[in-house]
Specification:
heterodimer, A: 314 residues, MetI-like fold, 0% strand, flat, B: 315 residues, three-stranded antiparallel beta sheet, 13 helices
């Protein structure tokens, strides 16, 4: 092969170098990247604006009322109304989710990942759970209305906090199952084989090997679904959260309290936001939103921190 | 592991018995049965949803005058159940939501998946998840108290603060994180070898992203849009707070005015503004609208699931 003369070789080198490095900056590429960054920043800005928007009103409320706003019952008067029953209702609903949706959801996830044969029935359950997770929350409200309020009204007390709690437990069940399944699926088979290898049965292996390994993942998913349940308003409107007053302490026992009408933070916010008075719209609604956001963000923060720690330790 | 030890003790006596402790096996069967019951509960829930919706929806359809289903508007108290009013309202709000959520969510997803340094992603992703965790009542109030006066009022001189546009923007804000996270997953599941092949050919990053990564991830991207649309159609609180028209609405295509969607109509039927509990035909109409909503979102979710499966099969 003939060797190119030195001067020709240097032109070739220049051409190739120019091709590789590009002539000047890649303007369309930079514009594209700038647009992408802009859309990301806009998305983040929405969060900031949303929070900044509710802070002044909330600040005024808490400055005027202090913690008394959190401990007073609901009232028609903007100057006297408070969130005590709403916070209690939301906590009781959270209790239903933790006590019902978590154990049942984790048990279903264990069955699907550890026991179920790969057959048509298992696939059917799996598809069914995924579809349930996509059903709009208000449709769960209709389920709660016809099953818990009407059909089992004698037991639940009709439009009661028990009906609301059961409805939201059903609402988050598919999410708990899906996230727990993912956590259990991520457990390496070698962990299971270690359990079987020393003669443990399937349940013993799950309890002593699989669940401890999957626990952080399961916990993250369940906390996130709890946050979702605490912020949910639409199903509670249908099972009747709006119009009641949750009487705390007046009942002979706790079960009677559960069968009473109730309030919850999200539905109270909906109530406040629809009141015509400027105090409700301008100050009380933002204050109630801040209380709800603090609860939901704390749950989210706990879940995210947990996951980050767990990711790093793997 | 005390049981495991007793199990081997029995075998050590003489001939080896591998059947195991019957008590231990019984417990094993009981636990398996309990887990199985938990898993099948989901089928009971689905059946409960479908049966209760169909039962009351049939009640509604047999009781209502068919002429009332196609009329001037949706006024349940006056016996007017024009379902088209609700479908048009839902469609308009969803369209506005998608106009907001698709560009912003997709842009954020491309940036996070293809451009952002790992450190940036570690900071931004939890913030996006926080945005996803904001309860919809809070976004609804935001739509009414901030989006309507600061954005929507620039496009209209109407005196009312309620509008489907404000609700649509609010719903859009609500589904941005959903679009972003599902799209990002789709793009990150595109194998790196495709990107490397593109760079190896001398392509710039923008070319690689738009000509290689996006086409390869297109099924997942479409799935994210469909899931977001389904979520937007089913969103209740934002529309109930910001769209107005709680007493009912005439059939309207005016996005800048108040309107009624399927979900908001259900919320209005259930609350004090338009309370019709018990007696009349208006109460079962709640379930009829619910059944329509369920069918529409279920169909969209099934389509999205087939797109997601296509991504999984390819890589």
């Amino acid at each position: 092969m003939a060797v190119a003369p030195p001067e020709a070789r240097s032109t070739t080198t220049d051409v190739v170098r120019r091709q590789i490095e590009g002539r000047g900056a890649d303007v369309p590429g930079l514009i594209f990247q700038a647009l992408l960054l802009l859309s990301l920043l806009l998305t983040l800005a929405i969060l900031v604006v949303l929070i900044v928007d509710v802070l002044p009103g909330a600040f005024t409320t808490f400055q005027d009322r202090g913690l008394e706003f959190l401990t007073s019952p609901l009232s028609r008067s903007a100057a006297r109304t408070g969130l005590s029953q709403s916070i209690a209702g939301t906590l009781i609903i959270g209790g239903f989710v933790v006590l019902l949706a978590f154990p049942i959801g984790i048990a279903a996830a264990i069955y699907l990942e550890e026991y179920a044969a790969k057959n048509a029935f298992t696939r059917f359950i799996d598809v069914n759970i995924r579809n349930l997770a996509g059903v709009p929350s208000i449709v769960y409200g209709l389920l709660g209305l016809s099953i818990f309020v009407q059909l089992f009204g004698g037991f639940t007390g009709g439009r009661s906090v028990m009906s609301g709690g059961l409805t939201l437990a059903v609402l988050v069940l598919p999410i708990v199952i899906i996230t727990s399944s993912e956590a259990i699926r991520a457990v390496p088979d070698s962990i299971r084989e270690a359990g079987f290898g020393v003669g443990a049965t399937r349940w013993e292996t799950i309890r002593s090997h699989v669940l401890p390994y999957a626990a952080p993942g399961i916990l993250t998913g369940t906390i996130l679904s709890l946050a979702r349940a605490l912020g949910e308003a639409a199903p509670l409107i249908l099972v009747g959260a709006i119009t009641g007053f949750l009487a705390i302490g007046g009942e002979p026992n706790f079960v009677e309290t559960l069968r009473n009408p109730f309030l919850a933070l999200p539905t109270t916010i909906y109530n406040f936001a629809r009141q015509p008075g400027g105090d409700f719209r301008g100050e009380l609604t933002p204050a109630a939103i801040v209380v709800l956001l603090v609860i939901v963000f704390l749950a989210n923060f706990a879940a995210i921190t947990l996951r980050n720690r767990y990711d790093r330790s793997r | 592991m005390a049981q495991a030890v007793t199990g081997t003790d029995a075998g050590a006596q003489g001939e080896i018995d591998l059947t195991g402790d019957p008590k231990r096996l019984r417990r094993e069967r009981i636990i398996r049965g309990l887990f199985f019951a938990a898993a099948t509960l989901s089928i009971v829930i689905s059946a409960g949803i479908i049966l209760s919706l169909i039962f009351e929806a049939v009640n509604f359809l047999t009781a209502v005058d068919p002429a009332a289903l196609v009329s001037d508007g949706w006024f349940p108290r006056r016996g007017l159940f024009d379902i088209l009013t609700l479908l048009i309202g839902t469609l308009l709000v969803t369209l506005v939501a998608m106009v907001i959520a698709v560009p912003l969510g997709l842009g954020a997803a491309i940036y996070l998946s293809e451009y952002a340094k790992p450190r940036v992603r570690r900071i931004v992703k939890p913030i996006l998840e926080t945005l996803a965790g904001i309860p919809s009542v809070a976004i609804g109030f935001f739509a009414l108290a901030w989006i309507a006066p600061n954005i929507i009022s620039r496009f209209t001189s109407a005196s009312t603060e309620f509008s489907m546009a404000a609700a649509g923007v609010g719903v859009g804000v609500l589904v941005i994180p959903l679009v972003a996270s599902v799209s990002e997953d789709a793009m990150r599941s595109v194998p790196n070898s495709l990107r490397e092949a593109s760079y190896g050919m001398g392509a710039k990053r923008v070319t690689t992203v738009t000509r290689v990564v996006l086409p390869a991830a297109v099924s997942g991207l479409i799935a994210s849009f469909i899931i977001a649309a389904s979520r937007a159609i089913g969103e209740t609180m934002v529309v109930a707070i910001a769209a107005g028209a709680t007493g009912g609405s005439l059939r309207t295509f005016n996005v800048l005015g108040p309107g009624q969607t399927m979900t908001a109509a259900m919320a209005a039927l259930a609350t004090g503004t338009d309370q019709v509990r018990g007696a009349s035909v208006a109460f079962p109409s709640l379930f009829f609208v619910g059944l329509l909503l369920f069918l529409i979102t279920a169909a969209l979710n099934l389509v999205a699931a087939t797109f997601v499966r296509r991504v999984r099969q390819r890589y």
